[in-house]
Design a protein that fits this description.
Blueprint lengths: L19 E10 L3 E10 L5 E12 L1 H18 L4 E6 L2 H8 L10 H12 L3 E6 L6 H10 L21
Parallel strand pairs: 1-4, 4-5
Antiparallel strand pairs: 1-2, 2-3
Helix pairs in contact: 1-3
Length: 166
């Protein structure tokens, strides 16, 4: 039986499996609010595909992240992918789907079950957590789906200038 999920103690920096590489993210504005989904899918040949969708639904940030993952997995299936390394910056999602599942929040249990079913349709999937700053492109796509500009880089002043210490 092929490995579908990494063991819980697998570090996020583990080498990716052969196949596609995906970074996905979701936004809910306000939280809870309208949900936007974003993902960057990179094929084994290096071809990049972007996903940016407004769900026209209301939900929390965790639901948006979960829906972004499911949209990315559906896009992978449309491209005929059999294996993928999937990254997201939501630790709850990775803990729920990447290791021994803990009890999912009741309002999201059905979505987690759908996501597990989608993950199970691949020969090999490895799910990993990345810090938010390494998921900026997927975040920008999720925000763009809602008509919002990308977030400024961490530590930057809104006008691009450093703040002076007083």
């Amino acid at each position: 039986m092929p490995q579908r999920f990494p063991p819980p103690d697998l570090p996020a920096a583990a080498p990716p499996c052969a196949g596609w590489v995906v970074h996905c993210d979701g936004s809910a504005l306000p939280n809870p609010g309208r949900m936007g989904l974003g993902a960057v899918l990179v094929a084994p040949d290096g071809t990049r595909h972007a996903l940016s969708q407004d769900t026209h639904l209301h939900g929390c940030n965790n639901e948006a992240e979960l829906r972004a993952l499911m949209a990315a997995l559906a896009a992978l299936r449309q491209h005929g992918a059999a294996s993928a390394q999937v990254y997201c910056d939501n630790s709850i999602l990775v803990e729920q789907l990447g290791g021994a599942p803990a009890r999912a929040p009741a309002r999201l249990a059905a979505l987690f079950a759908q996501a597990r079913a989608l993950l199970g349709g691949f020969e090999h999937v490895r799910l990993g957590w990345v810090p938010r700053h390494r998921n900026a492109q997927a975040d920008a796509l999720a925000r763009a789906a809602l008509g919002l500009a990308p977030k400024p880089p961490a530590g930057s002043h809104p006008k691009g200038q450093k703040r002076r210490k007083r």
